[in-house]
Amino acid sequence: MPELSTSHTPLMHARSKSHDAVNDGDVLLRHNESLTDRNENDRMSSLSKSQSFPQHSAPAKKDFRASKKRPSDVSNMESFAKSNLNVHKRGLLRKKITIHTMLSWTRDTIKKPMIMTKDKHTKKDACETFKLIQAYMGDKKVKKIEKFEIALDVITKGWQGTGLRDEIYIQLCRQTTGNPKPESMERGLELIGMCLAFFPPSTKFYSYLEGYICTHLDMQDSAGVNVSHYAEVSFKRLEKIIQTGAKRGQKKPTLDEVVQSQRSIFNPSMFGNTLDEVMELQMDKYPNHRLPWILTTLSEQVLTLGGNKTEGIFRVPGDIDEVNMLKVQIDQWNVPDTLRDPHVPGSLLKLWYRELAEPLIPAEFYDACVESYNNPNDAVNVVYSLPDINRLCLTYLIRFLQIFAQHEHSKVTKMDANNLAMVMAPNCLRCESNDPRIIFENTRKEMSYIRTLVQHLDTSSLDGVI
């Protein structure tokens, strides 16, 4: 089997051979004036006590999301609550529960969903889910069930039932608002982050949840609970899943996936980070590696499983459930010996590239790439001008693709330089324009640029590099 070692002979000579082969007491846990200005605070103070949201000082925005859009203000969150929450009553006189109370931690169970719904199944599941959330947070005694099994039940309900997702999130917002028990508070924040690894809120509830999370970003640690860190992780996961949608595949979320979603809160995943962050993650295990372990490992797996002799490699997707399982294993630094289909590591490799927090070819070099797509010398010079880690990883990728572009392989895989560029360009370059015409036109140039590199980039500089 061929290997993607930088000292492997076919890869060393790939460039010359491939030359011919032509993607909330605090409400909403202080989810209020941190998202608004003084005028908004004055307006809020005029509200009746039964309607107002508790006040607190506004935290500053974190640098890491300075470029992100400003979250919805409190008025939008308040509006959602007034328009969508069920009217709850209690006591012999059946007195209405205020919004303030409805959105604050409670040790009691609920008798109906927090959000209004006509769906009978959602009404039933909402009450059961609230008990599960209380059990996970340690607010409700249950039989000796492992906490991750409880989390799995909650996550599976949300993954399967789109109508229950917002209910789960608002229940978690409630139980992490004014929570008197630090351990319970922490588990609730943890569960929010875990859920956001599997399913998004609805478009209607997105701004509410985003605003809630943002009010925690600059909070100080409370009784040992690193609130801001949980918020940071949840913010990033929310941004990501609102774009990608719920976990794909036919199989339900597994216990391993749920455990990994919890572990990665404080032990970041190799997916969805920058190249520098990925290198930092592997520093202890592979201090001498100049390339990401995940990159070289998945690439080698593709070749070891005969990907260079498999028709449609990189074009045909691997089984999504197998890809999901491999992702969990790889994130734990494990390479299962049960892999048989090269399409699986091939799909995960593309996913890793596509999910990089910053594209393989940084945005500031994008224009230079699309302008030099048909000029080999200029195209290659762009590569040489990239930051070191980006240059190494891009060169490694091109060296990898050059193996497949060799005629002896492309005649079997049906993936010549053109086809390889077509499937890989979206994973390397990201057009930042919102103009459909520019996006359409640049798609062709992006493909041509990657093809030009496959055909002309001398990758011998990677000899002996790992």
UniProtKB/TrEMBL annotation:
Species in which this protein is naturally found: Ciona intestinalis (Transparent sea squirt)
PROSITE patterns in alphabetical order: MYTH4, RHOGAP
GO cellular component, one term: cytoplasm
Biased composition (Basic and acidic residues): 17-43, 60-72
One Pfam match: RhoGAP
Transmembrane residue ranges: none
GO BP annotations listed: signal transduction
Disordered: annotated segments: 1-77
InterPro entries tied to this protein: MyTH4_dom, MyTH4_dom_sf, Rho_GTPase_activation_prot, RhoGAP_dom
Biased composition (Polar residues): 44-55
Location of the Rho-GAP domain: 273-461
MyTH4 domain sequence ranges: 105-262
GO MF term list: GTPase activator activity
Protein name: Rho-GAP domain-containing protein
Annotated Gene3D superfamilies: MyTH4 domain, Rho GTPase activation protein
